[in-house]
Amino acid sequence: MQYLDTGWFGVAFVALLVFFLLFNIIRADRGGKQLYIRRIPGLNAIDDAIGRATEMGRPVFMVPGIGDLNAISVQAINVFAHVSKLASQFGTPIRICIANAAVYTVAQEVIRDVYQKQGMIDRYDVDSVRFVSDRQFAFAAGVSGLLIREKAAATFLLGEFFAESLIFAETANSLGAIQVAGSTQTSQTPFFVAACDYVLLGDEFYAASAYLTRQPILVGSLVGQDWCKILVAGFVLVGALANSAERTQVATVTRAGYLDTISPEQIASEAEALGVTESIYRARVASAQVEVPVKEERASNPKLNKKARNETSFFRLFSPMISKESLTIVRPQKPTVEPEGEGE
Amino acid sequence: MRRKQNFWDEIQFIDRRWLYLVLGVFLVLGLNLKCAVSNVCAEEGKDFYATVMKVPEGGTVLIQSDWTTSTRGESQGHLESLLRILMTKRVKFLIYTFADPQAPQVWRNVIRVINEERESQNLPVYRPWVDYIDVGYFANAEGSSIAVRNDIRRFFSRQVKDDKGINRSIFESPVMTKINKVGDADLFVIVTASATLDVAVQRLSDRVNMAAMVTGVIGPTALTFYQSGQLKGVAIGLKGVYDTEYMMANGLNTPGPDGKIVVEYDRSEAPVPKITEGKTLARGASYIVALHFALGLVIFAVVVGNIAMFASRAANKGGKRR
Amino acid sequence: MMPWLAQADPRLNMWALPPYSPQLWIAVIATVLVGILLVFGLTFLPTNLRRPIVTVMTFLAGSFYVGLWLWPQPVAKVETDLPRDMVESVGFWFQDAQQALANVANILTAFLLLLGMYSLLRIHLGRISKKHPDRAFSVVLIISMFLIVIFGYADWRMRTFLDPQNLLELKTNWTIWNHGRDILFDGLLMQMDAAMFSLIAFFILSAAFRAFRIRSVEATVMMVSALILIISLMPLVIYQSEMLIKAWFPNPSPGSFNPENYKIGTIAGWVKSNLQTPSLRAVEFGVGLGALAMGLRLWLGLEKGGVSV
């Protein structure tokens, strides 16, 4: 008896991706062989940007976007740690402007550690990592003001950016700053392309720390990502072909709300057979995606009876339906608790 | 040595403040010019209108309104036209946000304005608790969306004041009585200016019919979800506002006064009716001239910039290189 | 009495005890005590233990969500159900705990916001005391921060606890606190937000003017596709161009050279659905896989970069 919504294929697929990543991380960690990473101009420009800021005696600005503390902002801080390391060697002032309190605490720790490890803790300015505002446009106004007042020589805009991306990029551009930018938000990348000198596209952003540090674990994970991409691309190709072939076929079953396909009397009798009230039964099966035969009017219409997008095997591989039998689960019920009055 | 700048060089590297001034003047002019503009509606916009119009009278729509005043140029028009359609069809709605604590105040203003407008036209106004439920802001879009997917009744276990001022569970209101799972709603519409679109689509689009109204900037992202069938329809940017209003005024596959169909819709042969009460052409129509002026200026600036670049190259050919 | 304790769902689980019950009081007090002890304990730890602790905590927190995702989800569960066996018990537990865990994350963020405010105050009070040339900005910032906190709290408290009849819905019943909040929030903050956002229109113009030049093949392709898409957003232009095409080709022949295919709207649609969307999707796949790899490294403590130092 199936009673669990397993969706096993999606899980198995992601498990395979995870295996690819871990396998390559272990391989690179043990192998010690230097793996090749193609040139990423935006990351090569980091040295130039810091050099220029040092010559001009003006600060380097870094913004990790306005997202929460997540993989994206952590990656941005990793890159900023590298930039800060170089800046600490030259005594170049840095400014990291942050819009999220959690990211701020993490960034502060990391950057102080960087200066400490470099033995340059006397050059560390506690105000170089600063929380500006968690309101998007107050942050945009605050950072733009800082950029202009402190005459930024270089800016690194890496992370989750939204509408403020162009405000930063154009403000810094008007100051003649060298700009390296990259956002995981594809909607903001065009703004960066138009206004910045170097842009990290898509997952180049995630490749940055591997590229800069060449740590075996990071490089291995990058190779694992490439394996994953090949797998995904293969699935896209096979899926496109299979779907194209399949959608010319006639549909015999479809997914529908089970309740839509049966009469009210039938609902009542099925609920009774299970020994539950009709409302509990309705709640249980409401919107459950169950395989049912296609309806009469659709089956007789040659225009409509071809398989729809969500009726192909590939679609169903990733979004499985539960069987009709699973609706007949009877679970024991919680004892009802009367809501208590106030105070003890 | 830097060579002397000629006229074309100056155009090519013009002080950006001149551009800003011209744009400012154009926008002010455009916003003050109001005229009816003929339109060709986008396909995804037509699907959006048809999807919303498919909701049965008295049905329930979930609205996730994730925008604030900053994007009101686009999003306010979106929400206004959506609410006007729903109110005409007497569709009930639950409205909330996962994006921003400022968002509730903004939609409250929109509902108030439309209600005042309807009152002045002797149309029934929308009352909280009976016609709609406003549950406000919930933090953490990702976690909240997963929670809605798992158990909408537990997630929205907030109490609100009913029509007699008594706090009651929202599921006792006429709006939510038949909602046991997120899929029981007739439609889920997300009006957004942010990445909450991705979260909502990823977490909920396989459980409920979903449509979106998004700003121009995240339009491309919304289109990927529209193409994959996860969104049944999308209204994008200011053009999307005007498209929706234009369809509200003219319907789809519906003959106009001259007997000709104004907006053709290939997806279905049946006409989708126009909106017969209240305002139809509103914010979109009053901004569309300004949009033309602004986009025209961008095109003009790009063309002039290129001409200046080539002219300055030709003028300096053979001359001293710096 | 104000409802200080959360109103639990009457159908209880281990994360929601009945309001005002002794069990809930015991749980609240025990949690506060354990929390204080933990914070104290952590301050006495040697620094070399920091990394393992962070790694373990990250692993535990991440494991919950991995478990939630991997564990088979119970089919057709309604809130009054009790689990039937072990597998379902765990599935139910995961679903019940998820909301509680999301709340923990939100509360943590709220505490961290205090740290952010501390940073702001330190920088700006420092500037004022050192007579920094830009100290006027700092004064404005600090005054507006306190004003909005005070008025915002007063307004919220009145609306939530002191106004059962919803009298404050009408502007005529407002007190100075409600007017103050309205001026600061709706009158100033929201309008300034909108003003900042509208700057983008100006920046788009100057960026487009600079970037869309025929410098290289790539730049030209970008410029041409941008111009097509810009024109497709101008209803008047596409409408007129379609009318022109209809007038010139009253009886279009079907096939590749059908003039219908060369309407601006059609070309823009083609660019969007055949060039833009697929490439966006490809980039999104890359970004998603990057996030998966990054998340995996963080979860397993393999990230030896800055963050887990």
Task: Provide an overview of this structure.
The complex is a heterotrimer of chains A (344), B (322) and C (309). Chain A has helices spanning 8-31, 41-56, 71-90, 101-117, 136-150, 164-174, 189-195, 204-213, 216-246, 258-261, 264-274, 278-285, 296-299, 313-318, and strands spanning 4-5, 60-65, 94-98, 129-131, 154-160, 178-183, 198-200, 253-257, 289-293. Chain A is α/β, with parallel strands linked by helices. Chain A has a six-stranded parallel sheet, sandwiched between helices. Chain A starts with a strand and ends in a 26-residue tail after the last helix. In chain B, the strands form two sheets. Chain B has a six-stranded parallel sheet, with helices on both faces. Chain B has a two-stranded antiparallel sheet with strand order 4-5. In chain B, helix 3 packs across helix 10 and helix 4 (72-88) packs parallel to helix 10. The termini of chain B are close together. Chain B has 322 residues and is of the alpha/beta class. Chain B is globular. In chain B, 46% of the residues lie in helices and 12% in strands. Chain B has a single domain (37-280), classed as Rossmann fold (3-Layer(aba) Sandwich). With 309 residues, chain C is mostly helical. Chain C has a domain at 212-299. Helices cover 70% and strands 1% of the residues of chain C. Chain C is built from eight helices and one strand, in the order ααβαααααα. In chain C, helix 3 packs across helix 4 (135-161) and helix 6 (217-232) crosses helix 8 (264-299). Chain C is extended and about 85 Å long. Mean pLDDT of chain C is 84; it is low at 1-10. The chains are: A alpha/beta (344), B alpha/beta (322), C mainly alpha (309). Chains in contact: A-B, A-C, B-C. The interface between A and C is large, with 100 and 83 residues.
Q: Label the CATH architecture of the domain at 38-213 in chain A.
A: 3-Layer(aba) Sandwich
**What is the C-alpha radius of gyration of chain B, as a whole number of Å?**
24 Å
Strand order of the largest sheet of chain B: 3-2-1-6-7-8
Q: Show unreliable segments of chain B.
A: none
CATH fold assignment of chain B: Rossmann fold
Overall mean pLDDT score of chain A?
84
The N- and C-terminal alpha carbons of chain A lie at a distance of 47 Å
The overall strand count of chain A is 9
CATH topology of the domain at 38-213 in chain A: Rossmann fold
> Roughly what fraction of the amino acids of chain A lie in strands?
5-15%
CATH architecture of chain B: 3-Layer(aba) Sandwich
Question: Structural class of the helix and strand makeup of chain A?
Answer: alpha/beta
Radius of gyration of chain A using CA atoms only? 28 Å
Task: Give the tally of β-strands of chain B.
Answer: 8
